[in-house]
Write a structure and sequence with these properties.
By secondary structure, the chain is α/β, with parallel strands linked by helices. Helix content is 38%, strand content 19%.
Length: 551
């Protein structure tokens, strides 16, 4: 007899063996599929053995953990489908590259292009695999044996990844004859992937899944070509450098080539900032607007851009939109009655536009400073007046929203979108979400500059992301140029700072699952020393030591 507790009620079973059995027993009470369970506070796949006196909560798609497992499983099935329908694997081995508009871009290696015929075959095979309700098996093997197998089959990205793992055994998943490694949970069988869409895009395939708010309809994919071009450029660059996965980066560290990598990366970013500066000068525009999500390095980028513009004979006046916040007591509130600091309604838009117009008219203006301690706007005799070679740079999360600068015609604005777009993957089938890059940056910075612990930062993260989806991402397409602030070397640096903070989160807290996932990601990377990192690097905005005024 096995006893379990669900919703504070005890249930007894004679033949219960796995959490799949538990889910089947209770599924009739729920409209949506039970995907996994929390058992005594730990996430468990349904294939796992149930234990006596387990305290169980069910995980559905509308939780981040559930949705991530659904997406991971859906992509695993896509790779299995490609494996089965494209016989010649040479050059057609699929790679999960990055996200586009919350959808996932998969492309083949070595300049092969998926054809319309390929797409039809892959889609039909995907439908077949899902309809047959095939169990996804999970196995464990010796890591050394796995490395030999992967080398034999030329899956070198995973072989190199496991080379730098300290564990003697490794888990892998199997669907029919297809085997693959995933660093986090997969669902029990193929039938759970009910809602998806597969389509051709560029040289590869886009697969889309539902949003967390509408779980029965795949997201409508909308291409953002400027973002794609930057992401694709980064992939090609890291591939040429042979450092596009964790294993390859670890190899550089182990071979004492990390400092060279830092210099290369910083030179690459410096070149990009220089190119943007030349575009600004050639445009003859007087107003530059810089926007991007939190922890994308907007402040460092703004300073570095200013120096490049000065070298071209221009005199930039940098203005933070945050200083135009309304007094906190007047700030809008969200549906829970809490301050909504992500809303554009926090900005005194009318006053900001008056300042912009007066500056462009060569009038003297006094710029405000927002006191984040008192929550009030202040003036400290910061007088500005534009001269012939002066240009205005506005930096803030709403800067690409035309509503924020309604007095300026769109053709007179130079818009820059900045984000930390993932360049390094764990391996070619396990990407690291861009949001996790930024969350790690923010955890480190919040602790250094505000004394926040990691739990506090993670607790706020969902709200921050909702604000970004509403106030920032819809305006990406307004950008004249996109700048990727991600650094190929940054995770080995962030690891040193973030790991102690994440380990300090108690296992019985809601934030622990996120902390555990971030720790798992960091565990794939060797640590590296920061001595070679320039003091103007964007990573200094987070770890400290910047010579720029970035806080």
């Amino acid at each position: 007899m096995i006893d379990i507790i669900v919703n504070n009620q005890k249930y007894s079973f004679k033949s219960l063996s796995t959490y799949y059995d538990v889910a089947n027993f209770f599924q009739k009470d729920f409209e949506n599929d039970i995907l996994m369970v929390y058992a005594n506070g730990a996430t468990k796949e349904l294939r796992k053995q149930c234990n006596n006196n387990d305290i169980i909560e069910f995980i559905f798609y509308n939780s981040p953990v559930g949705r991530e497992a659904y997406i991971r499983t859906g992509i695993f099935i896509l790779f299995a489908a490609i494996y089965e329908v494209i016989e010649d694997k040479n050059g057609k081995y699929p790679v999960l590259n990055f996200t586009q508009s919350d959808s996932f871009y998969v492309s083949p290696k070595d300049n092969y292009v998926y054809t319309d015929s390929d797409l039809i075959k892959i889609t039909e095979k995907y439908k077949e695999l899902v309809s047959k309700k095939i169990k996804i098996e999970k196995f464990q093997t010796q890591t050394a044996k796995a490395i030999d197998f992967l080398k034999k089959h030329r899956v070198l990205d995973k072989a190199l990844l496991f080379k730098y793992r300290s564990f003697s055994t490794t888990n892998y998943y199997q669907l029919n004859n297809y085997k693959d490694y995933y660093y986090d949970h997969l669902l029990y069988d193929t039938s759970y992937i009910k809602y998806y869409n597969i389509e051709r895009y560029k040289d590869g395939i886009i697969i889309s899944f539902p949003s967390i708010d509408d779980i029965k309809k795949p997201i409508d994919f909308k291409s953002i070509d400027k973002i794609f071009e930057i992401q694709n450029e980064s992939i090609k660059w890291t591939t040429n450098l042979r450092v596009n996965t964790a294993g390859m980066l670890n190899e550089k560290i182990a071979m004492n080539e990390f400092n060279d990598l830092v210099i290369l990366q910083e030179a690459f970013q410096e070149k990009k900032i220089g190119e943007i500066s030349n575009l600004i000068k050639d445009s003859n525009k007087k107003t530059i607007f810089i926007a991007g999500p939190t922890s994308s390095g907007k402040t460092t980028f703004s300073h570095r851009l200013s120096y490049h513009l000065k070298s071209l004979g221009l005199n930039p006046i940098t203005i933070s939109v945050d200083n135009f916040f309304i007094d906190r007591k007047f700030s809008p509130r969200d549906e829970n009655g809490e301050y909504d600091f992500e809303s554009i309604e926090n900005v005194d838009i009318k006053f900001l536009n008056t300042v912009i117009k007066d500056l462009l008219s060569h009038k003297e203006v006094e710029l405000p400073v927002f006191n984040f301690v008192t929550g009030e706007r202040e003036f400290h005799n910061d007088i500005k007046k534009m001269n012939e070679n002066d240009i205005l740079i506005f930096e803030g999360i709403h800067s690409l929203n035309d509503k924020m600068s309604y007095e300026i015609d769109s053709k007179d604005k130079f818009n820059i979108y900045i984000s930390a777009l993932t360049q390094i993957s764990i391996d070619e089938h396990n990407r690291i979400p861009t949001s996790d890059y930024r969350l790690l940056r923010r955890i480190v910075r919040d602790n250094r500059t505000r004394g926040f612990d990691a739990k506090n930062t993670i607790k706020m993260w969902d709200k921050v992301q909702k604000g970004e989806k509403m106030n920032i991402f819809p305006y990406q397409e307004n950008a004249n140029v996109v700048f990727n602030s991600s650094l190929i070397y940054e995770l080995p640096i962030l690891k040193t700072y973030a790991e102690p903070l994440l380990f300090n989160i108690d296992k019985d807290t809601i934030e622990y699952e996120t902390a555990k996932r971030l720790l798992k990601i960091l565990s794939f990377f060797l640590s590296a020393r920061e001595e070679a990192i320039p003091r103007y690097s964007v990573i200094r905005e987070f770890i400290g030591g910047s010579i720029l005024n970035v806080g």
